[in-house]
Amino acid sequence: WQLHAPLIAAINRLKKEKNAVVLAHNYMTPEIFHGVGDYVGDSLGLAREAAKSEAAIIIQGGVHFMAETSKILAPEKTVLIPDLRAGCSLASGITGADVRLIKQRYPGVPVVTYVNTTADVKAETDICCTSANAVQVVEWAAKQWGTDRVILIPDQFLAKNVARQTDIKIIAWAGACEVHERFNASDIADVRAAHPGAVVLAHPECPPDVIAASDFTGSTTAMADYVTKNQPKQVVLITECSMADNVTADAPGVEFLRPCNLCPHMKRITLQGIYDSLVKHQYEVTVDPELIPRAAQAVQRMIDMPP
Ligand code: 13P
Ligand code: SF4
């Protein structure tokens, strides 16, 4: 990524001039992640940072729902995304109207939604969660509402994976991540046959048979931390490909094996796009002001939960 040094230097200069920060998700390419990211991390970390950032402009190195989350938490700031097409199959698979229908069907049952959702879905939500805290949030919601059931939407696989770890009954939805749903247990069997000592880490958006065949499950940051802390000889990250490219800098002795899948939405964000975004102030992400207070309450409740 050092090949991109002139563009990286230009972006870092512009950020200072304009009081802007780049919040870069773990799936950004290394030249973004290492070169221009002021804060790098998982969805939970990026949301926390948006809430406390003192910059005037947030450039979201990530997908649209992440930029909306930043705007919800920091409505007075300008939030820019370098490419408006950077979506997410989970976020596009459910609407606020869908959530209202679910609530009619299960009155009194708390609604937990994954942050990978649009602002209108968050506005219908009691508390958000991410892959880093889903079990904890579900148990908190059940206790607060005094129920033994919780609605956890829209990712059917995250819901199944949470259900395995709690006694709370989970009411799910049929959404899926188009990147993680493509992995299957035979991918892991193949890698274990070829590399018997390899450690297998999987993101909780993967189907349950993949999780069952893995050694560790966690958010993107939890997976990165596992590798840097344990420094296994060989590892496979069952998630987006840029993860391995980024973590390798902190784990030079670790061999990263395949498979991995690319997220076409995350890959819409490029260094050139970030530069253009800073120069032209594009593309501004706005959220209907009527939705912001309710959506902010759902995200803030999650952020305020003890770590
Ligand atoms: P994390 O919150 O684990 O970073 O996941 C976000 C995401 O989009 C994974 O596909
Ligand atoms: Fe959405 Fe999946 Fe891409 Fe994450 S990897 S942004 S969940 S489509």
TrEMBL record:
Record bears the keyword Iron: yes
Entry binding sites for [4Fe-4S] cluster: 88, 177, 263
Cofactor annotation remark: Binds 1 [4Fe-4S] cluster per subunit.
Coiled coil regions, renumbered to chain: none
EC number: 2.5.1.72
GO molecular function, one term: metal ion binding
Entry GO terms, CC: cytosol
GO biological process assignments: 'de novo' NAD+ biosynthetic process from L-aspartate
Cofactor(s) required, per the database record: [4Fe-4S] cluster
Pathway the protein contributes to: Cofactor biosynthesis; NAD(+) biosynthesis; quinolinate from iminoaspartate: step 1/1
Keyword terms: 4Fe-4S, Cytoplasm, Iron, Iron-sulfur, Metal-binding, Pyridine nucleotide biosynthesis, Transferase
Protein residues bound to iminosuccinate: 25, 43, 114-116, 131, 203-205, 220
Top-level taxon: Bacteria
Reactions mediated catalytically: iminosuccinate + dihydroxyacetone phosphate = quinolinate + phosphate + 2 H2O + H(+)
Compartment list: Cytoplasm
Function: Catalyzes the condensation of iminoaspartate with dihydroxyacetone phosphate to form quinolinate.
Family in the record: Belongs to the quinolinate synthase family. Type 2 subfamily.
Name recorded for this polypeptide: Quinolinate synthase
